[in-house]
């Protein structure tokens, strides 16, 4: 019975050791990917006392102004599992996911919408970078029909890779419609989570603004000018969880300036957007949950399986080989002579003196007669 139990424990120990080795190499890589069923995420950033361009329709007329108020930007990310399954090409199947993203910017004093955009894009599941997908699109003007393929995403868009490194990454900018480098700038702690800080600096980049929009702005702010351009600056700071690539905190210091041919400048946007405390707390909570899952698969369970496997393996070996050794010892003790040498008492090696015998032949002249005991009578 003990032999069978020992063999079973030995096999169980081998199984646990295989699991301990296999989980970091095979299970963990499968977990460090963007899931198809990722729940909707929402992030909010606020810019206090911002100056911004507001275009409002009042009846048939259009009012253009640059007020000052607090702005709130809300970004919602909705993974689209159906589009992922139906519309991605074969070369991206299993390696990318489709996301729908919506952003709304409101002024908080009136709850009026200042700007909106929506987009659909594909992201690689491991790197989080934009995947080359011909059916991606971007809607910034609220048009009913958005041309498919009117934007080409590249670089990191809404997250960084799993296992983010301390190096520069290309990050996509929606205003410029291209990616620019975001440099690693240090490590900080955000509510107990070690975060890598990346900074992307955009300085006085010319925006591709439609001529009719330029004419409308010039007519409102510098009517004496016939031509003009809009320049864009932004210092984008991203605090990224290196394990999951999730944004923990975001800051964007945006500035847009209309420069007419006369040299007159009109500030169209001057806003410092920062993630709200509630948004940061939500991101930290999500990161902690995901970190626990990754550590569980990549470290805790493999170590536990290794310890249990070694314990079962050693116990099984002991149970298999110890009974055989005990039986051999018992057999040997039955067959080998005792340590104390015992021979027949009449043998030459006995330590007992044999008693005198009266069976010796008295008529043999070579054999002496036995000595008589004192007081004995000699018999003939």
Briefly say what this structure is.
The chain has helices at 2-31, 81-87, 211-221, 277-335, and strands spanning 41-52, 54-58, 61-65, 68-79, 96-107, 112-124, 137-139, 169-173, 178-190, 193-206, 228-240, 247-260, 265-275.
Structure description:
The chain is 28% helix and 35% strand. Strand 12 and strand 13 form a beta hairpin. It has 4 helices and 13 strands. With 380 residues, the protein is of the alpha+beta class. The chain has an 11-stranded antiparallel β-sheet. It has a two-stranded antiparallel sheet with strand order 2-3. The protein is elongated. The longest helix has 59 residues. Helix 1 packs antiparallel against helix 4.
Largest sheet: 11 strands, antiparallel
Kindly provide the radius of gyration, computed on alpha-carbon positions and rounded to a whole number of angstroms. 45 Å
Instruction: Return the structural class.
Output: alpha+beta
Q: How much of the sequence is in beta strands?
A: 25-35%
Largest sheet, spatial ordering of strands: 7-6-5-4-1-13-12-11-10-9-8
What count of helical segments does DSSP give?
A: 4
Number of E-state strands: 13
User: What's the order of the H and E elements?
Assistant: HEEEEHEEEEEEHEEEH
Q: Stretches where pLDDT falls below 50 for ≥5 residues?
A: 339-354, 356-362, 370-380
Shape: elongated
Keywords, separated by commas or semicolons:
eleven-stranded antiparallel β-sheet; disordered C terminus; alpha+beta; about 375 residues
Question: Which helices and strands appear, and what pairs or packs with what?
Answer:
Blueprint: H1 2-31, E1 41-52, E2 54-58, E3 61-65, E4 68-79, H2 81-87, E5 96-107, E6 112-124, E7 137-139, E8 169-173, E9 178-190, E10 193-206, H3 211-221, E11 228-240, E12 247-260, E13 265-275, H4 277-335
Antiparallel strand pairs: 1-4, 1-13, 2-3, 4-5, 5-6, 6-7, 8-9, 9-10, 10-11, 11-12, 12-13
């Amino acid at each position: 019975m003990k032999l069978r139990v020992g063999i079973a424990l030995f096999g169980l120990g081998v199984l646990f050791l295989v699991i301990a080795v296999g989980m970091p190499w095979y299970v963990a890589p499968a977990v460090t990917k963007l899931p198809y069923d990722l729940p909707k995420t929402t992030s909010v950033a606020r810019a206090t006392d911002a100056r911004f361009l507001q275009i409002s329709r009042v009846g048939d007329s259009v009012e253009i102004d640059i007020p000052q108020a607090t702005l709130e930007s809300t970004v919602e990310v909705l993974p689209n599992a159906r589009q992922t399954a139906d519309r991605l090409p074969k070369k991206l199947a299993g390696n990318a996911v489709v996301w729908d993203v919506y952003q709304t910017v409101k002024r908080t004093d009136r709850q009026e919408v200042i700007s909106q955009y929506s987009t659909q894009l594909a992201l690689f599941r491991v790197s989080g970078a934009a995947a080359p997908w011909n059916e991606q699109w971007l809607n910034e003007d609220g048009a009913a029909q958005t041309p498919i393929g009117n934007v080409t995403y590249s670089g990191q868009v809404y997250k960084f890779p799993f296992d983010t490194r301390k190096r520069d990454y290309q990050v996509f900018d929606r205003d410029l419609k291209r990616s620019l480098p975001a440099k690693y700038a240090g490590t900080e702690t955000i509510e107990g989570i070690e975060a890598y800080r990346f900074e992307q600096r955009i300085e006085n980049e010319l925006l591709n603004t439609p001529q009719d929009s330029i004419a409308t702005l010039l007519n409102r702010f510098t009517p004496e000018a016939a031509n003009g351009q809009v320049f864009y600056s932004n210092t984008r700071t991203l605090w990224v969880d290196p394990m999951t690539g999730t944004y923990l905190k975001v800051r964007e210091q945006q500035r847009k300036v209309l420069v007419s041919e006369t040299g007159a400048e009109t500030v169209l946007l001057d806003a410092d957007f920062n993630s709200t405390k509630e948004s940061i707390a939500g991101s930290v909570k999500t990161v902690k949950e995901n970190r626990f899952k990754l550590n569980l698969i990549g470290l805790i369970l493999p170590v536990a399986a290794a310890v249990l496997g070694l314990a079962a393996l050693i116990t099984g070996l002991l149970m298999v080989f110890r009974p055989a050794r005990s039986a051999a010892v018992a057999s040997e003790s039955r067959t080998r002579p005792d340590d104390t040498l015992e021979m027949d008492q009449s043998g030459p090696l006995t330590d007992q003196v044999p008693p005198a015998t009266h069976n010796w032949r008295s008529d043999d002249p070579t054999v002496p007669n036995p000595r008589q005991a004192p007081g004995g009578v000699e018999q003939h």
